[in-house]
Amino acid sequence: MMLESSFPSERGKVSSALEQASSYGLTLARTWAFSDGGPWPLQLSPGSYNESMFKALDFVISEARRNKIYLILSLVNNYESFGGRKQYVQWGRERGQNVSSDDGFYTNDVIKGYYKNHVKTVLTRINTVTGLAYKDDPTIFAWELINEPRCESDLSGRTFQAWIEEMAAYVKSIDNKHLLEIGMEGFYGDSMQGRRQFNPNGYVFGTDFISHNQVQGIDFATIHAYPDLWLANWSSGDQLRFLQNWTQIHVSDSSTILKKPLLFTEFGKSLKPPGSTVNQRDAFYGQVYGSAFVSAEDEGPLGGGLFWQLLAQGMDGLRDSYEIVPTEQRSTASIISQISRRISGLNNRRRHG
């Protein structure tokens, strides 16, 4: 949304997307508070920022506020899209740091200092539209440390664990009002090796759903779900069965071990693969949101889900076959709206006795 808002002629589409989201009963969105280097940077180089791009992020937050939508703001990407860890490591190398891989992002003190500076810059930013510091803005629901982290040079998870501990404490030292989450997909690691059987294809990426989410300062756990990518050769029905197991084990562990809330912060199903249908995607969405509603109704940890990705008409450059344009994918939008309103109804009844 920030990138789209950086073009004044496109801002109306961002407003339209948020207005449509609100009209369908959605109350929470997740978006990037990063764009490191590259053709459309927020951060030009360590500590140097593009004010026009920052003003675009100001606009996104103000529009979310106007539409009563809370935001999770992610602070860096694991992937090289929009810069990510790779750009930070490149900046370090350009300034004399001897870093052997992108995983040096987690261990090199100079590079960690670049990230901390970005955290401080974003959290203390004064919004040019609302006049509020980001760290004081109730529109911001939570901060996310990193989108879909990986640390494949240390599959034990200890390197990434140390980074989380350091960065969670740093974020909370600046802003102890907002919630904080890591940005994890939910893969299990060394702390409970028996749980690895639930990882799709036996994936191990140096992350650990249990130990990482036990870090002090991490307020809720997250999972993602892309069975069509993780299990591309499985049938749609088998992917749904995986999704059910994936969801249930994380709900159980969040409740009994972590004792923290859980949120689906990203999930999606592409219509690009041959044989993929809207009905299959609707079944996928229905299962995710149905699980969230059952958990919420039982006062369990899973409280909702954020799909990838909501677009308004005219945002054609951002289409990736996962997009939901409510005026086009009406059946999927209806599923999202129905469950969102049911969960909101539960919350309202509980607030008012």
UniProtKB/TrEMBL annotation:
Family matches, as Gene3D superfamilies: Glycosidases (3.20.20.80)
Cellular compartments per GO CC: extracellular region
Residue stretches in coiled coil: none
Statement: the UniProt record of this protein carries the keyword Hydrolase: yes
Domain (Glycoside hydrolase family): residue spans on this chain: 10-309
Reactions performed catalytically: Random hydrolysis of (1->4)-beta-D-mannosidic linkages in mannans, galactomannans and glucomannans
Main location (coarse class): secreted
GO biological process, one term: polysaccharide catabolic process
GO MF annotation: an example: mannan endo-1,4-beta-mannosidase activity
The keyword rRNA-binding belongs to this UniProt entry's keyword annotation: no
Enzyme superclass (EC): hydrolase
Keyword set, alphabetical order: Glycosidase, Hydrolase, Secreted, Signal
Subcellular location: Secreted
Similarity section: Belongs to the glycosyl hydrolase 5 (cellulase A) family.
UniProt cross-references to PANTHER family, sorted A to Z: MANNAN ENDO-1,4-BETA-MANNOSIDASE 1, PTHR31451
Protein name: mannan endo-1,4-beta-mannosidase
Name of the gene encoding the protein in the UniProt record: LOC105040152
